[in-house]
Amino acid sequence: METDLKTLLEGVVEDLIDARFQADVAAAELAQHYRANPDLRTFSIPSLNISSVDVDLRFVFSQAESSPVGGDNLSGVESVFEGLSGSVLRMRPVADAVRNRADRDKLKKNLEARFMRVAKSDRSSRIEDRQSVMRDQIKKALSAAKVKDLSATDLKTIDRIVAATDTKLTAAEPRKRVVRPRVQTAPEVLSELNPDAISRISFSVDLTAQRWQEIEEQEGESVQQLVDE
Asked: Is 180 contained in some domain?
C-alpha cells in the first residue's frame, strides 16, 4: 500500500476515534436493552473501554509528490469572474442572442462553472496553455447559449478578455506547492528491505480526554460542558 504520510497518520487516528465511538454507541444501546429487561437489569453491561492506544508505524519512503494547496479558497476569484462575465455579456453578438434575464443568468452560471475549473487548475502550466483552455471554455459556453457567427473582431475581444482575466487570476492568490512524502507500508514490501531503510513513528492516541458533564449554575439551571477526564 502506497500513500502520503499525512493521509496515513490521519487515517490511523480517525479510525481509532471512530472505533471508540462505535463501541460507545453499542454500549449505550445495550444499556437500554438491559434496563428494559428485568432479567438482564442485574447484570453488568458489557462495554469496550479504550482509554488510549499506542501506535508503532513502520514504513519506507518511496518518493515525494508535489501538489498544489490553497486552490479551493482563492481570494478575489469572485471579483475576477464578475469582470469576465460582465465583459462577455456586453459583447454585441452575446447581447443580441441572449436578451431575457433567465437566459443571461443561465449563461453566467455556465461561464462560472467553466471559469472555476480553470481557476482551480495548475497555474504552473504555460500561460499560452491556460489562456487557450479559458478561451475554449468561453466559446463552449457561448455555443451552448446559441451565440453564433462570432466575427474576427469578436474573437479578438475574447482574446483580450482572456488575457486580462488570466492576469487578474494569477494575481488573486498565487498557488503554492507542497511536497508530500509518499510511503509504503505493505508487509511484503518491508520484509524485503534492509531494516536500516525502514522508518518508524510511534505515538499515543488519548481516547478519553474529555467528557460531557452536567454542571449546575448559581441560578439553579444545569448546563452541559466538556470537562477533562
From this structure: no
